[in-house]
Amino acid sequence: MKYKARYWETVDDRVLCKLCPHDCLIPLGKRGFCRTRININNELISLNYGEVTALALDPIEKKPLYHYKPGSYILSVSTYGCNMRCDFCQNYELSQQDVYARLISPKELVKLVMKHEHNIGIAFTYNEPFVWFEYIYDCAKLLKETKQDKDVVLITNGYINPEPLKELLPYIDAMNIDLKAFSNDYYQKVCKASLEPVLETIKLAHANCFIEITTLIVTNENDNLTEIENIAKFIASVDKNIPLHLSRYYPNYKMTNPPTSVNFMKQAQEVAEKYLYYVYVGNIPYEDRNTYCPECKTLVIDRTYGSVHQTCPKCGLNIPLII
User: Which of 19, 32, 242, 323 is packed most tightly, with the most Cβ within 10 A?
Assistant: First the structure.
């Protein structure tokens, strides 16, 4: 659905999109880098407003969010498009290709959220939500006006300019932000983006909502312990309590590098745990998804049996959870 976009200005016979750090200068009739915004008659138009490509009720842990309402379910929704071009993209069918979508208005989506009795809210996920800015803003605002305690969650690469992010954050409860590496060269080469705006998003989001971080460790790209240490140090400089998810890479899309070594994943976890209290390893066989007290190592969240303790039953340490 064509819908007048926000955050742009006219520059001669082009439009300058100011939504994300690409700052695309878009000629008449052409799309921006994300493929979802087009210059029509020197106005910037969103092409994907209300266009839904996937809809599912997911465990919150699938996002992944491990410290936000553990054991709950959330309605997950996506569109198409992305403002990065990661060679290893796990959802390239949605992010890099035009796919079938059905039109769902904000009112209809809010009704779907309210329909499921045990659903805590809505997660914008699977593809990059920030390229759906106008629709997400309208849906999030309407959901909060309809039922304040329903949650709005974003699973994002964090690539957005500060001004639109600040406008959206009052309606956002939680985010999982990808920190793909701690190297601008990596971001430019592998993702066709840059590092610094993502770091700024992490800091700004943490000041306004609950966040967790995910890093995909890719063989022969960012699988070195110095890189992991730098990521962990940065996150710790924001807050040592921010959970970090280290995710194992498997070949996908344009990248054929072999899967990340399980042994390296364990080493990376050990390095990150020198700086952070909660580090999880994902996409490996028999992964331990439970949460342990950082002081005495007592089990505080058992995700197999649904047991959740907000304070450690042994030493009494407060565990930073939202339940």
Answer: 19
What angle separates helix 262-272 from helix 225-238, to the nearest 10 degrees?
Answer: 40
Residue 4 is which amino acid? Answer: K
| Domain encompassing residue 307 | 290-323
Confidence of residue 99 (pLDDT cuts 50, 70, 90): confident
CATH number, domain containing residue 77: 3.20.20.70
Mean pLDDT confidence for 222-239? 98
Global pTM value: 0.96
- 266 and 301 within one domain: no
Report how many domains make up the chain.
Answer: 3
* One domain for residues 23 and 119: no
State residue 170 phi and psi, 5-degree precision. Answer: -60, -20
**84 and 29 part of one domain:** no
4: β partners = 45
CA distances from 222 to 2, 13, 181, 229, 268 (A): 39, 41, 6, 11, 11
* Same domain as 284, residue 250: yes
Q: How crowded is residue 213: how many other Cβ atoms within 10 Å of its Cβ?
A: 24
Given pLDDT bands bounded at 50, 70 and 90, which one contains residue 190? very high
Compute the distance between CA of residue 118 and CA of residue 222 in angstroms, rounded to an integer.
39
What are the C-alpha distances in Å from 211 to residues 28, 65, 116, 178?
38, 8, 25, 11
Contacts of 226 (CB under 8 A, 6+ apart): none
Mutual angle of helices 225-238 and 196-206, in 10-degree steps: 40
